[in-house]
Amino acid sequence: MSVELKEKGRWDPLKVFSKVSAAYLLAFFTKKKNGKKIALVGGNLGEKYEDNAAVYHKYLVNNHKEQVTAYWMYDPKTTYAQEQRIENAVPLGSFKNYLLFFQADYTFHGHSLLYDIVPSADKFLFLNRKTLITHVSHGIEGFKKILIQKEDIPLLKRTDYFNCASQYEYDLKLNEWKIPEQKLIITGFPRFDRYQPNQPSAAVKNILMMMTWREWLFDLTKEEFTDSAYFKSTVGLLKHEGIQKLLTDHNLHLNIALHPFMKKFEKYFAGLTDNEHGIKFLDFNHETIEYSIDHNDMLLTDITSVSWDFLYLNKPIIFYMFDKQEYLEKRGAYLNMDTDLYGYNAVSIDNVYEYLKKIIEENITSNEWYPKAKDYIDYFDQDNCKRLTKRVMGL
């Protein structure tokens, strides 16, 4: 998790110290009500109710309310927790947040304990020795090498369990991340419980286009960003005459989703929506990523983790890694981007057009590489949340 994903100095050290001190003392002298276990769940830096963490929070609320009180940690700058009426939602950085952290039996985070569960945790983690901390992950690891910041080191060391989607991920976290074997558990990803596997659409009519984030873009000026391969490639795809004609002739819809971490740049894409050619940018304040995965028939991406969901569902994928060399130099990948992709590997915008034309004109609705899914995903039974709960909580 890049420290640049949050504004520097957002959490005032003096306020945090005051809240932590008071919460620690109060937690020490008070007993939990009704004897139920307490679990804190968070993901996406508290900015979205999405992904593994959100799916797992819903599962605990719906299936284990008698044994566990599951709280969701959200960013107080957002309004989604109130709008969606998320049960037991607690603002990150509040006094209640710190108090619950010291009372909690379990925490489950998707990205980082620091940003998903309790701000500034690295400064006072030594005060909490009893809470079982589980990293439920975001997407299957493979296309992004882990970035370990200074503040991550004590957090990784203190984390009790790292959930894995498969034996493949287990081996990667053991050998590449150097996580001790006893901390690795294979229970599958909660997000895959949302839908049945192997569900290709009857026809390709709706195309989701989503690119992942790049930390080296975060501090660019408008001029620098609009001169980047990221921006130019997106515009190039949308303005390609062949792609536009294909969309129009076959009455297709191209739905573009900016990665949540790239939201700060969305104003630079204003004006690229093109109703004539069925091109629109999605607003995730009103349409979730889960909905987009379910209601789009194929994916056009670089290497976003959403591609694993499309593989799981056996839907076509076109990969277009427009800045592969730069990406490998600045971030790196565990998988080989030439041989390990589970979709069409386009090397240019014209190549994207050729693959898209093939998919549409030949009515290709499934993923030719679907047999690869079992290499990266161990479970296809929608019991991942159940397995995780049993393994961590013993329920």
Your description of this structure?
The chain has 17 helices and 13 strands. With 395 residues, it is an alpha/beta fold. It is globular, with a radius of gyration of 21 Å. The protein has a seven-stranded parallel beta sheet with strand order 3-2-1-4-5-6-7, with helices on both faces. The two termini are 31 Å apart. Helix 1 crosses helix 4.
Which characteristics define this entry?
single chain, 395 residues, alpha/beta, six-stranded parallel sheet, 17 helices, 35% helix, disordered N terminus
List the helices and strands and how they pair.
Layout: H1 13-29, E1 37-42, H2 51-63, E2 68-74, H3 80-83, E3 89-91, H4 95-103, E4 106-109, H5 113-116, H6 121-124, E5 132-135, H7 152-158, E6 161-164, H8 167-175, E7 184-186, E8 206-211, H9 222-226, H10 229-239, H11 241-249, E9 253-258, E10 279-281, H12 289-295, E11 298-301, H13 306-312, E12 317-320, H14 324-330, E13 344-346, H15 349-361, H16 373-376, H17 384-393
Parallel strand pairs: 1-2, 1-4, 2-3, 4-5, 5-6, 6-7, 8-9, 8-11, 9-10, 11-12, 12-13
Organism: Planomicrobium stackebrandtii
Pfam families: Glyphos_transf
Protein name: CDP-glycerol glycerophosphotransferase (TagB/SpsB family)
